[in-house]
Amino acid sequence: MMFLIFVAVAATAYFAWRIVDQLPDIVYRLSEIQRDLAEIRRRSEDAPLAAPAVPDAPAVPESEDEDST
Questions:
Q1: pLDDT bucket at 10, cuts 50 / 70 / 90
Q2: Which label site among 18, 39, 43, 61 has the fewest CB atoms less than 10 Å from its CB?
Q3: Per the structure, how many domains does the chain have?
Q4: Is residue 3 part of a domain?
Q5: Does residue 27 fall inside a structural domain?
Q6: What is the CA radius of gyration of the chain?
Q7: Largest CA distance in the chain
Q8: Is the dihedral of CA 27, 31, 32, 33 positive or negative?
Q9: Residue 28 domain boundaries
Q10: Averaged pLDDT for residues 5-27
Q11: Is residue 38 part of a domain?
Q12: CA distance 18 to 58
């Protein structure tokens, strides 16, 4: 029974070590995402309000003469 407890504690310690080892990378990536979102928000606030966000539907091309068969 002691061996199983030892294995469980060792596995828990290993996984905790792996998670803590990657925390700086995770924090850096989250800060990059936060910075990108802030930049997107700033750009959307700075955009002129008169310009439409979505362009109008494209013009329908004129059909060719139906008599030219």
A1: very high
A2: 61
A3: 1
A4: no
A5: yes
A6: 30
A7: 93
A8: positive
A9: 17-45
A10: 96
A11: yes
A12: 54
Q: Which tens digit of pLDDT belongs to each residue from 28-69?
A: 999 999 999 999 999 988 876 655 556 666 666 666 666 655
pLDDT of residue 30: 96
Q: How far apart are CA 7 and CA 3, in angstroms?
A: 6
What length does the chain have?
A: 69
Report if residue 51 sits inside a domain. no
Dihedral, CA of residue 17, residue 22, residue 27 and residue 28, to nearest 10: 150
Cα separation, 69 vs 66, whole angstroms: 7
Q: CA–CA separation, 31 vs 26, rounded Å? A: 9
Is 3 a residue whose pLDDT tops 90? yes
DSSP state of 50: S
Give whole-number Cα distances, 13 to 2, 19, 62, in Å. 16, 10, 71
Residue with the two structure tokens 């606030």? 45
Q: What is the pTM of this model?
A: 0.47
